[in-house]
């Protein structure tokens, strides 16, 4: 592995809290996965950007994918408002208006969750490398 392709060189990862929250929501609400992606060449300070995929190409690209759930505080991740909760809490109303109201309440709950998630980015994450796990600092941008 070339030195600039070695993720152990990474000391800190800069990311947008909005990207982290959006990536988490995307993966929960849509097909496919959204991650925060760091691409080679690697150096001490790296920028992670949102990346959506259906096929993981990290073996081909050498990229490092950070799960958005790993950069958001655990208690906030656990409080994600699932649509199932909205359905269980709703009065049995299978009319189009009832379904629209459930979708609206769910969208509002997700938007409120995203606000909390943007404020709950962790300070340190662990990257998995060929040399084992490596802790790196998380820097918020934007």
TrEMBL record:
<feature type="domain" description="DUF8009">
    <location>
        <begin position="3"/>
        <end position="141"/>
    </location>
</feature>
<protein>
    <recommendedName>
        <fullName>DUF8009 domain-containing protein</fullName>
    </recommendedName>
</protein>
<dbReference type="InterPro" id="IPR058322">
    <property type="entry name" value="DUF8009"/>
</dbReference>
<dbReference type="Pfam" id="PF26033">
    <property type="entry name" value="DUF8009"/>
</dbReference>
């Amino acid at each position: 592995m070339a030195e600039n392709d070695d993720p152990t060189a990474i000391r800190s990862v800069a990311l947008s809290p909005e990207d982290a929250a959006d990536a988490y929501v995307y993966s929960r609400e849509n097909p496919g996965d959204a991650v925060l992606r760091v691409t080679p060449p690697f150096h001490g300070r790296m920028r992670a950007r949102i990346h959506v995929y259906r096929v993981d190409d990290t073996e081909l690209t050498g990229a490092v994918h950070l799960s958005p759930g790993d950069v958001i505080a655990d208690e906030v991740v656990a409080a994600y408002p699932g649509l199932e909760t909205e359905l269980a809490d709703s009065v049995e109303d299978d009319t189009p208006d009832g379904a629209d109201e459930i979708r609206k309440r769910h969208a509002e709950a997700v938007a409120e969750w995203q606000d909390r998630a943007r404020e709950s980015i962790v300070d340190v994450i662990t990257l998995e490398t060929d040399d084992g796990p490596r802790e790196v600092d998380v820097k918020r941008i934007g």
